[in-house]
Inverse folding.
């Protein structure tokens, strides 16, 4: 039955399934690599700010890639941008499989830059494809498809975090990198053979100046997304894993396991966001999110990092407050993220969809960049409590921006 069902699928959906599989495989290596870099370089004695700097080019080039990548996807086709991304990740991993003395800050930053470009080419390709597969007007179905793809990706990224801690323990840094590069090379060869359709290629050749969105709704949503993801990464990227290792004296297994559990739970909640926000039927007549929905969920998120910061300030059951508080933050943040992911695909135009999606994820990458730099600098100078207060402020700004979206 399974083979028969696959044969009856349309060519576009078959292509999308391959893209999704590639995206999942890439996500595993991306999550594992992030955890490997944070833990390994902390083990080598790098300061939190220096660790944050290792990801600086990763985030900067993520901003550039999303802006230019959307144009490339519309011009060349999403299959080509996906394959280019996979190849670049393999090169980035190969650059890190060198003797430890060669892993200087600048060298690792360059390798991470390639990885950042690769990651955002893959994400833009996968997210843009959904718009082309759902019939126009079927907004409930669109929301459900976006939620499933986004949630499953983040759950796999969480598995990647755990995998990074595990591989560092079992194979050490170089062995882990070589294994991941080898497995991803197999996926890349499969992708070259099977991805043949120019999915997402615009009928009207887009001009380079069209990479900037002219839609006010997309611009406002992009600004809200920037602050939303800055609010997450200001504590998540560097501050939290280092805090867990130093303050609680957790080893690689525990840190990787907790971060993995957080992201897996976050991904599961994202997948079920349509049920949580009221669209349980996945059909056009189901309830779908609006700008007001985004405002209400962002508002509810604002108080959570502030509450954790207060618990830290008053020394109130610190370990329990951080673990429980961040799990709650993750669940509410997941719904916010899923709402945003649906709204951008809904707002985007059909022809050259990757242009709008790429611009939006450029703002997403900018938020990660701001959050990453602040995560290292603020934690090193002021501690985790300050990171959490900044997180609360950023979410509040995202909430206010959401008021300007379509009600």
């Amino acid at each position: 039955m399974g083979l028969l069902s696959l044969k009856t699928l349309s060519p576009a959906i078959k292509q999308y399934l391959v893209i999704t599989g590639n995206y999942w495989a890439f996500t595993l290596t991306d999550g594992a690599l992030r955890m490997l870099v944070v833990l390994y370089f902390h083990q080598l004695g790098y300061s939190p700010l220096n660790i944050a700097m290792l990801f600086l080019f990763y985030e900067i080039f993520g901003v550039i890639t999303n802006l230019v990548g959307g144009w490339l996807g519309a011009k060349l086709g999403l299959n080509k941008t996906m394959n280019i991304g996979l190849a670049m990740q393999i090169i980035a991993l190969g650059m890190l499989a060198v003797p430890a003395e060669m892993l200087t800050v600048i060298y690792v930053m360059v390798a991470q830059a390639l990885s950042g470009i690769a990651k955002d080419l893959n994400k833009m390709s996968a997210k843009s494809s959904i718009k082309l597969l759902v019939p126009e007007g079927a907004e409930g179905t669109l929301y459900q498809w976006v939620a499933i793809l986004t949630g499953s990706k983040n759950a796999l990224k969480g598995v990647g975090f755990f995998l990074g801690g595990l591989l560092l323990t079992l194979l050490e840094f170089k062995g882990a990198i070589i294994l991941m590069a080898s497995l991803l090379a197999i996926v890349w060869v499969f992708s070259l053979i099977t991805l043949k359709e120019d999915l997402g290629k615009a009928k009207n050749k887009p001009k380079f100046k069209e990479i900037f969105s002219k839609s006010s709704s997309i611009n406002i949503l992009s600004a809200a997304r920037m602050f939303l993801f800055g609010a997450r990464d200001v504590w998540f990227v560097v501050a939290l894993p280092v805090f867990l290792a130093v303050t609680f004296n957790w080893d690689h297994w525990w840190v990787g396991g907790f971060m993995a559990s957080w992201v897996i739970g976050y991904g599961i909640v994202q997948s079920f966001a349509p049920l949580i926000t009221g669209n349980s039927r996945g059909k056009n007549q189901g309830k779908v999110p609006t700008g007001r929905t985004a405002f209400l969920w962002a508002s509810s998120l604002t108080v959570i990092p502030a509450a954790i910061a207060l618990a830290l300030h008053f020394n109130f059951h610190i370990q329990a407050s951080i673990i429980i508080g961040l799990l709650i933050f993750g669940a509410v943040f997941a719904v916010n993220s899923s709402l945003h992911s649906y709204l951008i695909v809904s707002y985007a135009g059909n022809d050259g969809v990757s242009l709008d999606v790429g611009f939006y994820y450029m703002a997403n990458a900018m938020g990660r960049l701001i959050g990453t730099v602040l995560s290292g600098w603020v934690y090193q100078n002021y501690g985790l409590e300050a990171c959490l207060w900044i997180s609360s402020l950023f979410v509040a700004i995202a909430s206010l921006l959401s008021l300007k979206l379509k009600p």
Remarks:
- Residues 139-194 form the longest helix (56 residues).
- Residues 1-6, 280-286 have pLDDT under 50 and may be disordered.
- Residues 89 and 115 are 5 Å apart (CA to CA).
- The two ends are 44 Å apart (CA to CA).
